[in-house]
Design brief:
This protein has 3 domains: about 1-45 and about 210-240; about 75-190, no CATH class; about 260-310, no CATH class. By secondary structure, the protein is of the alpha/beta class. It has helices at about 1-5, 10-55, 60, 70, 170-180, 210-250, 275-290, 295-310, and strands at about 55-60, 75-95, 100-110, 115-125, 140-150, 160, 165, 185-190. It is built from 8 helices and 8 strands. The chain is about 45% helix and about 20% strand. The chain has a 5-stranded mixed beta barrel.
C-alpha cells in the first residue's frame, strides 16, 4: 500500500492520463481514419477495374439513381446531344506530370435529361497564369464517350481568369449558377480522347494499394503498446523500490547483518511506538555506536590519554 501511495504523484497521474488519451485517440480516431481511407481506396480501385472491363453504356443506363455518380464513378458512358460553347469554365490549380494546367469545363445539353458539365481536357497554363487559345467545342448534334465523375467537395467560389470563371473544385451547382445553367448536381463527365470537342484528356488515377492499411495497423499497435509500456515501467519501478527497501532493513536493525545493536539504552519503550522518522534516526544512531562506540566511552579514552601525558 505504501508503494502504491508513492505512485499517486502528479508525474504518474499525468503519465497515466496521457497514455489513456493516446490509446483512445489511436483506437477511436487515428486507426479508423487510416483504415477508412484504405477502404475508400479499395472501392476506387474496384470502380477503376470495372471501368476498364466494362464496355461503354448509355448514361441513363449506368446512372439510374442520384447515387450512381459515386457508385459508378469512372465507368465509360455514351451520350448524345449538343455542346454549349458559350457556357464554359476552367478548373485551376491542377497539374499533369508536374506541369500546371487548366482543365476546360463545358456544358453539354443531352437529348434526354438535364444539362450536364463535361471536362473536355487540359490546356497548359500560359505566362503569368494566362489561358492559352484552345479549340472551341463543335456545334451541332454529336455523340460522346466519357467517364462518370462524382462532384468534388470543397470551396468552389469562382474567380475570373482571362474572362473565364475559374474554380478550384468541380461543383456543378456553383458552376451552373455562374454560367446560367441548371446542371446535374450529383456529378459530371470526363471526356476521353478522340471525341468531338476533346482536348488533351485529363489523366485518370492508377490502381494502387497505398500505405493506409499499414498506417491503420500501426496506430492500432501503438494503442496496444502504450499501456503495456506504462505497465512495464510501473512494474520496474516497484521492483527497484522493493530492492531498496530490502537493503535498508538490515541497517534499520542496528548492525549491517541485522543483529541487535550492542547498546540498547536508546531503544523506544514498548508502550510508546515511534514514528517512521524516529525509527530512522534511532537506526542511524545505533549504526554510529556500532562503528565508533558510545560518546561516554570516547570521553573516557580522551581522559585516560590526558592522565598518561601528565604522569609522563
Amino acid at each position: 500500500m505504501r508503494t502504491l501511495r508513492r505512485f499517486i504523484s502528479p508525474g504518474w497521474v499525468i503519465g497515466l492520463l496521457g497514455v489513456i488519451l493516446f490509446a483512445w485517440a489511436c483506437f477511436a480516431l487515428l486507426a479508423p481514419w487510416q483504415l477508412g481511407k484504405s477502404d475508400d481506396l479499395d472501392a476506387r480501385n474496384a470502380r477503376l477495374a470495372e471501368s476498364v472491363q466494362a464496355d461503354p453504356a448509355p448514361l441513363a443506363q449506368v446512372v439510374d439513381d442520384p447515387g450512381g455518380y459515386v457508385d459508378r464513378e469512372w465507368r465509360l458512358v455514351t451520350l448524345e446531344g449538343r455542346w454549349q460553347p458559350d457556357a464554359e469554365a476552367l478548373l485551376r490549380l491542377r497539374s499533369v506530370d508536374g506541369e500546371p494546367v487548366y482543365q476546360v469545363l463545358t456544358v453539354f445539353d443531352p437529348d434526354e435529361g438535364g444539362d450536364i458539365l463535361v471536362n473536355r481536357g487540359v490546356v497548359p497554363v500560359g505566362e503569368n497564369n494566362t489561358v492559352p487559345a484552345f479549340p472551341a467545342a463543335p456545334g451541332g448534334e454529336v455523340g460522346i464517350t466519357a467517364r462518370v465523375r462524382a462532384t468534388e467537395a470543397g470551396q468552389a467560389e469562382p474567380v475570373v481568369v482571362d474572362g473565364f470563371p475559374a474554380v478550384r473544385v468541380v461543383d456543378p451547382v456553383v458552376i451552373g449558377g455562374t454560367l446560367g445553367h441548371d446542371l446535374v448536381p450529383q456529378g459530371y463527365l470526363q471526356l476521353v480522347g478522340g471525341q468531338p470537342g476533346s482536348l488533351t484528356p485529363a489523366p485518370i488515377p492508377g490502381i494502387e494499394s497505398g500505405p493506409y492499411l499499414s498506417y491503420g495497423l500501426q496506430w492500432l499497435a501503438f494503442g496496444i503498446l502504450a499501456p503495456l509500456a506504462l505497465g512495464y515501467f510501473a512494474w520496474a519501478e516497484i521492483r527497484a523500490r522493493r530492492r531498496d527497501a530490502e537493503r535498508d532493513e538490515p541497517r534499520a536493525s542496528g548492525t549491517p547483518d541485522g543483529s541487535p545493536a550492542p547498546d540498547s539504552r536508546h531503544d523506544v519503550p514498548a508502550g510508546n511506538p515511534a514514528s517512521p522518522a524516529d525509527v530512522e534516526v534511532d537506526a542511524r544512531a545505533r549504526a554510529m555506536r556500532a562503528r565508533y562506540g558510545d560518546r561516554d566511552d570516547a570521553e573516557h579514552r580522551r581522559a585516560f590519554k590526558r592522565a598518561d601525558r601528565l604522569r609522563g
